[in-house]
Design a protein that fits this description.
With about 210 residues, the chain is an alpha/beta fold. It has one domain: HUPs (Rossmann fold), CATH 3.40.50. It is about 35% helix and about 15% strand. Strands 3-2-1-4-5-6 form a 6-stranded parallel β-sheet, sandwiched between helices. Strand 1, helix 1 and strand 2 form a beta-alpha-beta unit. It starts with a strand and ends in a 7-residue tail after the last helix.
Length: about 210
């Protein structure tokens, strides 16, 4: 069975950078699906995210026309901080023999040692990192050791084994950030062409970012 991709984040809001990265990873790695897992209670964020029901609606609207993309809302049914290791453990229990690929950007990968029980992740899934120009994969410290022990440039390794590899791949670079979008929206500016039209409609109708003025 082809691997399952797991793409977590606050998605506050989801934008075309998220979607393009997920699509390129899905195609390159022959993922049977990419599960978008909106974070209910992000442990690393100082400010509260937009209401979960709105973020779930925005993700569902954004991926509605891509059959390989699905929404996974499991973190909203769990109490406490939304730890990736807990989500991966649950998905692994449901899919004991399937390859799981945790998808993330290089910026998230560089912060990985600050994540809750981060060392357990490689025993639950592969880690697939979207490379960005100007970012250097570490060769020292805990991440350097992780890459030395688990790094691979073979897509087949991700398909033939259920977990345990780190794969770094280049993707089309779209310099869009959710933080920048929230700032733009708080100024009353139009996010057209930066986010899917269906997401733009939800934001305009709900006025969910107006309070940031």
């Amino acid at each position: 069975m082809d691997p399952i991709g797991i793409f977590g984040g606050t998605f506050d809001p989801i934008h075309v950078g998220h979607l393009r990265t997920a699509l390129e990873m899905q195609q390159r790695l022959s993922l049977q699906e990419v599960r978008f897992v909106p974070c209910a209670d992000p442990p690393h964020r100082d400010t509260a995210p937009t209401a979960g029901v709105l973020r779930l609606d925005m993700v569902a609207a954004a991926i509605a026309e891509e059959p390989a993309f699905v929404v996974d809302d499991r973190e909203f049914g769990r109490g406490g901080p939304s730890y990736t290791v807990d989500t991966l453990s649950a998905i692994r229990n449901e899919n004991p023999d399937v390859s799981l690929c945790l998808l993330m950007g290089m910026d998230s990968f560089l912060r990985l040692p600050s994540w809750y029980h981060w060392e357990e992740i490689i025993g639950l899934s592969h880690i697939v990192v979207a490379h960005r120009p100007g970012w250097q994969a570490p060769n020292k410290g805990p991440l350097g050791r992780l890459l030395a022990d688990c790094g691979t440039d073979q897509v087949a390794r991700l398909q033939d084994t259920a977990f345990g590899c780190v794969f770094v791949m280049s993707v089309t670079q779209l310099e869009i950030s959710a933080t920048g979008l929230r700032a733009l929206l708080s100024q009353g500016r139009d996010p057209k062409f930066l986010i899917p039209d269906r997401v733009r409609k939800i934001i305009i109708q709900s006025k969910c970012y107006v309070e940031e003025n």
